[in-house]
Design brief:
elongated, mainly alpha
Amino acid sequence: MPANKKYLTKSFHQKFAKLTAGFFGGYAISALLHVLLAFWLPDHKLVLITSIFTIFLFWMLLFIIPYLFENGWKIWGIYLLITLILYVGVYFGKLYYPII
């Protein structure tokens, strides 16, 4: 049974924004989250080893989330804000708890 046409996105820009937010923004968030955990948790080797598996699972979850929103540009803004917050955490993690 096909989807009801009135619930599908008709705008190309919204489809493109949702796809790119899920792909690029989701990967950036999942990668930065694992790097942040590696800097702030005591055993960084364990985090980096398990990130091989969990980064893909978390990325796929973040890939699906933009399709739950009406506006694709709003989710881009949310993903960029989360990425900025995680990057600041990574920056201070490098300063206070350097791995090398």
